[in-house]
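Deviation from plan, reported transparently: protoporphyrin IX containing FE complex.
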Amino acid sequence: MSNLSHKSATSNTLLGPPQGVPLPRASAGLQLPTTAPQKLKSNADCSGSATGNPRNKCALKPGYSLMSWIRLCNSGEDLSGTGGRVVPVTRSELALHNKVTDAWMAIRGRVFNVTRYMDFHPGGVDELMRGVGQDATTLFDKVHAWVNYPQLLGKCYVGPLKENAPGPLTETDSLKTDTRDSKPVEIVPRFDWIQQRSELTLFFYTRSFSNPGLIVRRKDPQQLVARVFLESRWHTFDLQLAGKVEWPPKAVRVGTETGKIELVLAKEEPAPWSSYGTHTSRKLDSLDTQEEMYEYEVLASNDFNHDSFELSLQSVQMEVLMVLPVGHHVNIQVPVNGVEIQRSYTPVDHSYLPSETNSLASSVSLHFLIKRYTNGPVSSHLHQLQPGCRLHLSAPRGGFMLSDITANRNILLLAAGSGLTPILNIIPHLLKRNTNRIESLHLYYFNKTEADIWLRDKLQNLQTQDERFICTHILSQAEEQPQRISSELLSPLFKEKQPDRCTYAAICGPTSFNTAAEDVLKSLNVKPNQIHIFRG
Ligand code: HEM
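Because the crystal trials were delayed, the predicted structure below was used instead.
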């Protein structure tokens, strides 16, 4: 048996993306989605309704592969039929474009010309035709909420559906989910798997920019409980695997843009399996998990600067793997004078930490930068913990939605002191975004003095590597020109009619800083729905 990705011969589910296919450069337009669809059935087999049979893929005609679609999208051809103009569309106008040779479709308040996509649609022409001439949001989500349609159909965009988006299409409303006339459809993660001889990969498909989280607990070498956190709900998958796997997982990847989660496990005995095993699934409200705590132990703790330290934790016996949604935090609980006290902390990527800590990192470790407050019982307790000491972590918490900022290309991040951690967390995701690529990402980082600045070199490196990222340090106790947050400071970023005007701001700092920042932004006419405040 070769060492290629495969499933049992009878399975018709998703295979891995094609190997060795040259991808277009990031800046060259549409990219191959990581959920690259593969052809598995002939057209004759493509019967059954979309909703009745969720795996209902068709063979595509030669020359109509995903790669060919990407090539067509990048060819400069006018796929929207509007000559590059954005044209608002009324419902009655939309209804006129309901033929195979002239097919428009609205999804979340945006109208796409799908005529040229017909033969490229992995679900077949007939299925795609079910949604043309109308608002197809509900149908689309029912069949495949995880498909990244803004990316695939970017070049087919005609304009906003008039009732949904009155007035001109602006950066802040162009890509937002519009739920005014289409009820929000709950996303239920879809499970899939592939294998190599020595590896099993489990997939959980959610929706693009749905910002999922993941907790996996190993019960024994054949039993895993995987929980996917999505829109305040936990979806639990109890998996009984066909064979034994090693632990911890070799890798875990969460595609923030695709919403695809991949968990790569090494098989104890390399051999092809006839199936992954079996699973049952159920869902829980996040309230049900509010009280749940996970036991972690200290891997390392080192001073980081004059009043802060880094703390690396690992799940006890490596039992639990936890991946937080971007911009979310956990509560760390410690006993203080016999009472359990919790504080919220956002983990940072291990690459931000010194190299000796980096070597301890694995898929089951979490790393924190913590400011030590003289009168802070939790930070003082955490600071004196030695390797091997145990503590409890909550499940991920938070209200940050990546989908809220999909439409924004010019974004301001305001961080004060240790409030840098959730901000650090979102920066790479924003800079990597291909859909609606970021044009400028400003970080204003507020501290008292130079000595308080965290990760100055790393922030500087990031700025050197990507010119769209601009970091400005503001010091309230600088020897020369001390500064604080003010409208004078931020107004150049919010000038009316300026093409690179910021249209979104995320804030994280102490409460007094958050309030002052919010007031300044409001005075600059930034709307409440364009501001996110990280609150612990
Ligand atoms: C609203 C009407 C639509 C219907 C009824 C429909 C139906 C289907 C069906 C039945 C499948 C096969 C399902 C499966 O294998 O899981 C499919 C796959 C797919 N469709 Fe659609 N579709 C619609 C619109 C669209 C649009 C507008 C796009 C463009 C972005 C699209 C992109 C895809 C892709 C990429 C797949 C492969 C998904 C995967 O492999 O997970 N579909 N569709």
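The first strand starts at residue 98 and ends at 99. We consider this an acceptable substitute for the interim report.
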